[in-house]
Amino acid sequence: MLSGFLKKLLLSRQAMLDEGQITLLDTSFYLQPVSELVFLHYDMKTKFGDDGTKTLYEAGKKSSQDFFKKIEKLTVKKEDRVRLFFNMLNLYGLGELRIVTIADGTKAVIETGNNNFAKRYLQQYGRQEGAVDHLLAGLLAGFFEQ
């Protein structure tokens, strides 16, 4: 079943899905099994500790800052940018995100539901004491900084 958001992107020619080419909002993507991404995160954390997780975080942060510049051109209202960004993250398979609170404009609590990454991480490596999706944390940090 095709998501309503993806249908809108396809109809407005903001998404292209051809053999060997996936483009959303003029950005190229490639498909990858979630299990590989989970392994990458786990391996970076295991082999490189904080340096590995920081690299994933910074990659996510840069990605969302670049993406924000693109959606800034497409939207006028800040609320529309937030909605578009969260829709894109859901389309990527990162789950249904919801802002729970924003404190003093410096700290936000985001709740995610139906997150395939978190489910697979739990399945492969069991419950963890700390955060596991540093890429998503970076994506959110970069977006909110903008």
Give a brief description.
Helix content is 58%, strand content 18%. The protein is built from 5 helices and 5 strands; from the N terminus they run αβββααββαα.
Plain-language structure description:
This protein is α+β, with helices and mostly antiparallel strands and 146 residues long. The protein folds into two domains: 1-31, no CATH class; 32-145, no CATH class. Helix content is 58%, strand content 18%. It has five helices and five strands. It has helices at 4-11, 34-74, 78-91, 116-125, 134-145; strands at residues 15-18, 21-24, 27-29, 96-103, 107-113. The strands form two sheets. Strands 1-2-3 form a three-stranded antiparallel sheet. A two-stranded antiparallel ribbon has the order 4-5. A hairpin with a 2-residue loop joins β1 and β2 (21-24). The longest helix has 41 residues, at 34-74. The model has no long low-confidence stretch (mean pLDDT 84).
Distance between the termini: 33 Å
Radius of gyration: 16 Å
Which percent range fits the helix content?
55-70%
Which structural class do the helices and strands define?
Answer: alpha+beta
Treating each run of at least 4 consecutive H or I residues as one helix, how many helices? 5
Order of helices and strands: HEEEHHEEHH
Number of domains: 2
Shape: globular
Query: What kind of assembly state do the chains in view correspond to?
Result: single chain
Uncertain stretches: none
Largest sheet: 3 strands, antiparallel
Assess the beta-strand content as a share of residues: 15-25%
**Chain-averaged pLDDT:** 84
| Spatial strand order of the main sheet | 1-2-3
Strand runs, count? 5
